[in-house]
Structure prediction request, 585 residues.
Amino acid sequence: MPRRVGTVVRLPRNDESGAVLAFAVLLSIAVLAVGHALLFASEGAYVTARAHAHIVEGDAAAEGALEEARRAGWTLWMDLIPVGGRRGDPPQLQDNTTTEVTWRRLSAEGWLVEAAATRTPRPPTVRRRLLWIYDPELRISELPAVVSLGPGAPTEILGSISGDTVALGVVDAPALGLLDLATMLSFAASLGPRGRPEPADVWGACDTAVMWNWGDPSSPSRPCSSYSPLKGRRGALEVDGGEGQVVLVVDGDVLLRAGTRVTGLLIASGRVDVLEGSSFQGRIVAFAGLGVEAGSSVVGSRDRAAAALRAVRDVLGGALPLHPALRLGPE
Amino acid sequence: MMAVSRRSVRRGAARQCACAPPSSAQGTSLVEAVVALLLGLFLIHLGYSVILGLRTASETVSDRLDVLTASRITRSVLRREMARGTAGRDWVAADDSLRLRAFRGTAIVCSLGPLPSELVVAYEGDRRPEPAKDSVEVVGADGSLLYVDLIGAGPTSTTCNGADSTEVVMAWRIDGPILDDVLVVRLFESGSYHFARSALRYRVGAGGRQPLTPEVWRDSETGFLIGDSAVGVQLMPRTTVGRPVSEFLAWDPP
Prediction:
């Protein structure tokens, strides 16, 4: 009898074992839920970080495309775009990101450049910038005279100054619009302190590597007849005879002597002296003063100066920021 | 009937035997009750500890998220605002504040309007112009800049060749002379950013400072870092969660 009673009493203990099992199952489910919550939290942080990384990538791609466009500067098609018109460069694909650059002409020299970087399916990242690319005719017509001088610069004119506009005028700086002297010098091939410009050709082709080859304007049939370089010098420059066509940028004084005959554009931060029967045809900016000896001459020619400036557009035509802000907005 | 009665008696006897617990059975129930009580308390403690731990972990993660969010907002907002302007002219940074022209949009000039000081523009921006609080930066073809108030902005029937589909053609009136060679007009409001009361706050004109980030920074050690040629920001979290950050924001040439 006591045995049977004992058996009957143990029955509730079996029920307790079932509760522990249920508790263990619930606990496992709870742990699983917590694990998944942590997983989702990590996933959320990952998605946020990835989205931020994509924004940074898009930003870098658009900025890179803008900078590349700026460095490319002037190209031939630009003259064909009317003010108010626009042109899109072909899309570029790199690292799964497509960049498109659109040029919009706002004025003769002002361009709004827009770069859009797209990585599907995300919306494009757009960056815009205002750039300035010089127009040769406009730059020359902005010069006030055949010879432009700095304020109060002395002149000694015994020879002749003639041409298509007034002889002397005043400018604020030895510059061409936004192209200041330092910028122009950074683009120009460097000259020695003294030399004689002469055309040079090799096997029937103009040798443009020669420092003092400034073209051959008086011989239309020669290889260098159409060659017109951009040359520069930091310091005084003396030209001893010879002839050529050039855009000459000098951070110092310039001396043209011994019958030198040069056409084009001369920009000097110092004084320009034309001596010993020399002549210059085009436009001169002589910021620190001008001397023209008897028998020497300066002949103003808008066309010659503009032609020389046009000839160096692929070198000097790098786009400059028209607005100092790095971002024009909206973004 | 008789047999039934005997079985009933036997069942009754058995029940009596079962209902009279032996002394050993009573002791087992007490121990079991105590163990069950202790186990229950332990489980409750365990559960409470788990909940508390989860709550602490959740708060830590939330605080860390707030710090990261605040850092990201601070960086992106300040860098964007400063890149849209020029150091010294458009913005000036001090220890805990940045006063600036906050540019909000750009308008391409299509033509001069029929009225004096009126321009027809193709505008695209973060928001629509509000003459009550907005001014404009007029950009000339030679890069010259002029700052004047915007005194009117509204729709126009004049068309603008070359305008984008995202741009709105509008007529703007400005408080000043209009140059013939104006290219672009940029809309801005005068405002300032402050690190105050543990958050980055923005203030338009003389208005109140509105928080842009969660309040997570320690005011005394958070602010702008003014260098010789650059401006950065130092962000010090108020709690031990997160680490202090010093980052570049913009160049500030002397």
Notes: The CA atoms of residues 16 and 152 of chain A lie 110 Å apart. The mean pLDDT of chain A is 87. Chain A touches chain B through 36 residues (CB under 8 Å). The helical segments of chain A are 2-72, 136-142, 181-187, 302-311, 313-316.
